[in-house]
Amino acid sequence: MGEFEAYRRALPPGAPVRDENRHVLTQRLTWLTHSQNLEWSLFLFYSPSDRDAYLRPRVGYQVDDHLSVEAGGNLFFGAQEETFFGQFEDNNNLYLGVRYGF
Question: Which domain of life, per UniProt (predicted)?
Fold first, then answer.
């Protein structure tokens, strides 16, 4: 964070202080099966400095040349509400999708 000391001086009393440097590790795992028509994917963002994470699992299936379907989710984890991903912990969701191309 640039101007960290100015940020600290501007905080109201009792407000949580963010770290000057935030570290985030990312990992993507992809596995193709069934003649590469079925794709399993997991994307992870993890911050060891904030102890929070964002997980994006997804599975997609290519039915034919025109039709594909997928399902996935957005999952947030955090030890504290004021961390970047922890603030979204109540916003977990799942989704289904169908795509037709012509």
Answer: Bacteria
Rounded Cα–Cα distance for residues 55 and 42 (Å) = 7
**Pairing outcome for strands 93-100 and 52-62:** unpaired
| H/E segment holding residue 62 | strand 52-62
* Other Cβ atoms within 10 Å of 18 Cβ, number: 17
Query: Tokens for 22?
Result: 């935030």
Q: For the chain, what are the domain ranges?
A: 50-102
Per-residue pLDDT tens digits for 7-54: 888 888 877 777 777 899 999 999 999 999 999 999 999 999 888 999
